[in-house]
């Protein structure tokens, strides 16, 4: 049985970003116009007027200050309020593959690997740009990787479940070097006309190389994280849903089928699931939570993340121990915890532990115990 390690990560960040102020200005302009257009119905009491959004609410409720997006103008334009991106021709690279190739190249460079050496490509993300051919097979071809490739979706937990799938393939010898990517175009599943959630998500792509420990050692890779143990859990819930799919293309209002959540219920129900999952993982491996150098958590919401770390550690740690990137990136679904790890791991010393943890729709949650070489 081979021992799987993470030998590199990569990150693609879109060039364009939207501040809370820009987002709120656009939303409030839409509210003003809609209320003006419906003035008679509102006056007759037939419909309620739309309420404005606010920068103060967004920052306080979520900790988000800005988000990166692939297509800013059409999101802020009140006549579209969605990322309007030209349909790519069959001979062109898809948007998801394009982002993933960029993130993957950084990871391959760090891991001192050629793309041809990769023998499994996994796309793990919460939305796929199309049903088939698999985006992973397109990436495999674009990079020139060998072996096989497939797509998988466990919503915000896609990356941890993807790493677990990759590690299992390495352990049993099905693959020796895996590229796992998380191209998340979350702006596409967001209803920017819904005040409750218009601020939550951003676009990004992360990449992770998982391989046999002996191969990474042979190439003298400086920073390698040994995958010590995992815990994955799913528990069905209707509280976070995206109902948009191939069976509702004729829906009256497709926007209403996009992301929706019962935010308070999610908060209340998911925090204990995640805190218990992490605690059980640490207990079973005899690792004291205080000795963990970093908890790279899914970047859902500042209050949720802080409560989870507080439950595990008994106090609020500094930003290196539980790094927050959602202020700049917002919630990027499966990519969030990997961004946190990518940006905040250089302080780990040899034999230090880190926990990579995801949680989200399903419900689904995953925690991975990592040990630095
Ligand atoms: C796990 C995942 O990644 S899923 C995606 C992210 N989801 C999560 O992080 C789940 C955790 N949930 C949360 O963090 C929170 O529920 C949030 C941030 C989504 C919302 O914060 P809450 O404090 O719960 O706000 P809530 O929806 O209850 O609204 C509070 C008030 O603010 C109002 N409000 C809602 N949106 C806005 C807005 N954009 N601007 C101003 N006011 C607003 C509401 O109408 C409500 O008003 P009321 O008290 O008069 O009824």
TrEMBL record:
It holds the Pfam family ACP_syn_III. Keywords: Acyltransferase, Transferase. GO terms for molecular function: 3-oxoacyl-[acyl-carrier-protein] synthase activity. It comes from the Bacteria. Residues 282-371 form the Beta-ketoacyl-[acyl-carrier-protein] synthase III C-terminal domain. One of its GO terms (biological process) is secondary metabolite biosynthetic process. Residues 150-222 form the Beta-ketoacyl-[acyl-carrier-protein] synthase III N-terminal domain. PANTHER family: 3-OXOACYL-[ACYL-CARRIER-PROTEIN] SYNTHASE 3, BETA-KETOACYL-[ACYL-CARRIER-PROTEIN] SYNTHASE III. This is Beta-ketoacyl-ACP synthase III. It comes from Aliikangiella marina.
